[in-house]
Design a protein that fits this description.
mainly alpha; 2 helices
Length: 71
């Protein structure tokens, strides 16, 4: 299932870069702009995931401290 999801996303990104909706067939400048935008989106998503991991770790630590304190 993970591989299928990865393949679908990869196909979508590649199609978007090549076909560039609204531009007909995209030229090199449009493709470069689209690739840059995808990279920016991936950087933001990476930051979100790292933040979620940090919050989860803090939450787990607080829960474990409360468990041992009250347990």
């Amino acid at each position: 299932k993970f591989i299928e999801h990865f393949n679908q996303n990869s196909y979508w990104v590649a199609s978007t870069i090549i076909l560039a909706p609204g531009y007909g067939e995209a030229g090199p400048k449009q493709r470069a702009a689209i690739i840059s935008r995808f990279i920016q989106m991936m950087e933001v998503r990476k930051a979100q995931v790292l933040f979620q991991i940090r919050i989860s770790l803090v939450h787990a630590k607080v829960d474990s401290e409360n468990f041992f304190f009250f347990g």
